[in-house]
Design a protein that fits this description.
Organism: Chelativorans salis
Largest sheet: 6 strands, mixed
Oligomer: single chain
Number of strands: 6
Shape: globular
Strand order of the largest sheet: 2-1-6-5-4-3
Helix content: 55-70%
Subunit structure: Interacts transiently with the RNA polymerase catalytic core formed by RpoA, RpoB, RpoC and RpoZ (2 alpha, 1 beta, 1 beta' and 1 omega subunit) to form the RNA polymerase holoenzyme that can initiate transcription.
Pfam families: Sigma70_r2, Sigma70_r4_2
Number of helices: 12
Protein name: RNA polymerase sigma-70 factor
Structural class: alpha+beta
InterPro entries: ECF_Sigma-70_Domain, NTF2-like_dom_sf, RNA_pol_sigma-70_dom, RNA_pol_sigma-70_ECF, RNA_pol_sigma70_r2, RNA_pol_sigma70_r4_t2, RNA_pol_sigma_r2, RNA_pol_sigma_r3/r4-like
Distance between the termini: 68 Å
Radius of gyration: 21 Å
CATH topology of the largest domain: Butyryl-CoA Dehydrogenase, subunit A, domain 3
CATH architecture of the largest domain: Up-down Bundle
CATH class of the largest domain: Mainly Alpha
Length: 312
């Protein structure tokens, strides 16, 4: 029982490492569970474990590196735009200060920047710059020299730093803007939406070929506003609604049907008082960890039927 209790205390940190490595909630949970099984096996085999934190960090990171290598190959065949699995970060009893400090490294924008890095490079950078591990410990984990790890982290930091999102507005200001944004979609306020969007605003949609999705990103305030107000009209026809949530540490919302089943998750990137990027995840496989998922194709057929009746 004692080892299980110790593991549970470290589980949030291990999940945090695996999720940032993989961008997948389900895969990160599997990695953490596998690490626990290996830990139990090591104990049964009589292995002495000096530091449980060091042991688990090494196992989780190495498993994540191996998984990331295969995931990069699979994503070459992914249908459409790939986005990380959304993580709702306004749940639980987390210290708000800690959550705020970690929010930037959880954002979808940051996770997508990490995709530029190779698996070992990504691991070393995250362990040092996000989680505060020393170079000596990182060297043991990834199996490279300490000096080499310093170089790897420095190169990774240089590749990430220039494009890393910077959030000048306070969380409260971003939340207020997000509230206006989703309200404007729901009410069909085209002019209001245009004012909330950057001129070069863009939306990415990830359906994975398993739900109705955008054929390509839509760019431009007016184009995006027209698209979103069109979605708002469809939402009203089908009885869908937004529930405001924090997604990956940033303002967002979940889209649910009349029964509360999940249809999608929207994450906003807000910069200089306007919405610059909208990321929409509607791939049902990426929503199942949140709860029961609605049948998006059935809703589309229902909407088409309504439109055909009006035409008749």
């Amino acid at each position: 029982m004692a080892e299980s209790e110790s593991f549970e205390k470290l589980r949030p940190r291990m999940f945090a490492i695996a999720y940032r490595m993989l961008g997948s909630v389900s895969d990160a949970e599997d990695i953490v569970q596998e690490a626990f099984l290996r830990y139990q096996g090591a104990l049964r085999g009589g292995t002495e474990i000096g530091s449980l934190r060091a042991y688990l960090s090494a196992v989780v990171t190495r498993l994540s590196i191996d998984h990331q290598r295969s995931a990069r190959v699979r994503r070459e065949d992914y249908f459409g735009v790939w986005l990380p699995e959304p993580l709702l970060t306004d749940t639980g009893d987390n210290d708000p200060t800690v959550v705020a400090e970690e929010a930037d490294s959880l954002s979808m924008a940051f996770l997508l920047l990490l995709e530029r890095l190779g698996p070992v490079e990504r691991a070393a950078f995250l362990l040092h710059d996000v989680f505060g591990y020393g170079y000596d410990e990182i060297a043991r984990i990834v199996g490279k020299g300490e000096a080499n790890c310093r170089q790897i982290v420095a190169r990774a930091r240089a590749r990430i730093q220039a494009d890393r999102p910077r959030y000048e507005a306070t969380p409260e200001q971003r939340e207020r803007l997000a509230a206006h944004f989703f309200a404007a979609i729901t009410s069909g306020d085209l002019d209001g939406l245009v004012q909330l969007l950057a001129e070069d605003a863009i939306i990415y949609g990830d359906g994975g070929g398993k739900a109705p999705q955008l054929s390509k990103p839509v760019v431009g305030a007016m184009q995006l506003a027209r698209l979103l107000t069109g979605w708002g009209r469809q939402m009203r026809q089908l009885g869908l609604r937004f529930l405001r949530r924090r997604v990956n540490g940033q303002p967002g919302a979940v889209l649910v049907d009349q029964d509360g089943l999940y249809l999608g998750v929207f994450a906003l990137e807000i910069d200089q008082g306007v919405v610059r990027t909208v990321r929409s995840v509607i791939n049902p496989d990426k929503l199942r960890h949140l709860g029961p998922v609605a049948d998006a194709w059935a809703l589309q057929r229902r909407l088409t039927g309504k439109q055909q009746k009006r035409e008749i």
